[in-house]
Write a structure and sequence with these properties.
two-stranded antiparallel sheet, 347 residues, globular, alpha/beta, 9 strands
Length: 347
């Protein structure tokens, strides 16, 4: 919620619609938050900013009926259904869309019916196909959506696994023309099946492809950003309370080996400096511009926010107090960084 005014400053006047309550169940677990807390924090941030034009709330990467129930009760309106866990080695080797995706379609159908039964207000559905080691083909896309339509499930967004690498905290790695051709092919499938949007997951900091996204989809896209806001909070710490930043960076080093397990990243700890040996004026340059350091800080957010010192939070309250005290600086860095995302997309 503390980041919400900065997010709204970035999208104001752009024509893009902000999705402000968005945290996956995995991220909520790591930060020990609940769907109600995520929603409440976003709402208060909206009130603080005086925003009156509405916002989205995305219950991200839902895998079980229980996940759906908790997010529906909190008032979320977009439900992202994730079939990754039912795609086993047999499905990954499948030569046809039916052998690759049939079990996932069954899961999507069951979760969609649960959403229909539990959602408190009108809702949208998104299907996530991106967190897998193989690309989603347009034929896969068409198969999944067609099978869902046969079962009475209409989706509003679909997240393919695109060519190239969408690693956390860094720019797109791959050939932009290849990406744009794939995005255009998926957009054509979406238009032929009712016009759902393409969702680009791990969309933070992928500056090389934003214009391609806007062109290929003719504006029918949902770009998900999340952890980049955490890095901007750490930028405020590096500028305004460097000793706190050094402590966080030191913990990130010790936790990186464990926390990286659920993310597709290529950072090497050996390329990240020891913050204790970096001068105050160089912290931002050495840690928040370099790819390896950005990724180490990015994926260890949960360990930092839940670290304890006796019965007290080690960093959570100190970081919150810093961001409240330096509110103008926090809003400014978020508006600048998220603005870099918004401008090419809005064109």
């Amino acid at each position: 919620g503390l980041a919400t005014p900065g997010h709204l400053a970035a999208v104001a006047g752009s024509g893009l619609f902000p999705v402000l309550a968005q945290q996956s169940i995995r991220e909520m677990t790591r930060t020990r938050r609940t769907p109600d807390e995520v929603m409440d924090d976003a709402v208060f941030g909206v009130l603080q900013a005086g925003w009156t034009r509405g916002f989205g709330a995305d219950a991200d990467h839902l895998k079980t009926p229980g996940d759906v129930d908790r997010c529906a009760a909190a008032g979320f309106v977009l439900f992202t259904l994730d079939g990754t866990d039912v795609i086993g080695s047999r499905e990954r080797r499948g030569r046809t869309p039916a052998t690759r995706w049939s079990r996932a379609v069954d899961l999507f159908t069951g979760l969609a019916r649960r959403v229909r039964a539990r959602a408190r207000v009108g809702f949208e559905l998104e299907v996530s196909m991106d967190e897998l080691p193989f690309e989603t083909t347009p034929t896969d896309h068409r198969y999944v959506v067609t099978e869902l339509l046969k079962r009475g499930v209409r989706i509003h967004q679909l997240a393919p696994r695109f060519p190239g690498a969408f690693e956390k905290g860094v720019d797109y790695r791959g050939d932009v023309r290849t990406f744009e051709r794939a995005a255009a092919a998926h957009a054509a499938v979406a238009r032929s099946l009712g016009g759902h949007k393409l969702s680009i997951h791990s969309g933070s900091d992928k500056f090389r492809i934003y214009r391609a996204v806007a062109r290929a989809t003719a504006g029918a896209f949902h770009l998900k950003t999340a952890g980049t806001s955490w890095l901007e909070a750490l930028r405020v710490a590096a500028r305004c309370e460097p000793d706190l930043f050094r402590e966080i960076a030191a913990l990130a080093r010790t936790q990186f080996g464990r926390d990286r397990a659920s993310y597709h990243i290529s950072a090497r700890l050996s390329r990240v400096p020891d913050a204790a040996r970096v001068a105050d004026v160089a912290l931002e340059r050495r840690f928040l511009i370099k790819d390896d350091a950005r990724q180490v800080l990015h994926v260890t957010f949960g360990s930092v926010l839940t670290a304890m010192e006796g019965a007290d939070w080690r960093f959570r309250d100190r970081l919150r107090e810093l961001l409240v005290r330096e509110e103008d600086a926090h809003v400014a860095v978020l508006a600048r960084h998220l603005g870099r995302h918004v401008r090419p997309l809005a064109r």
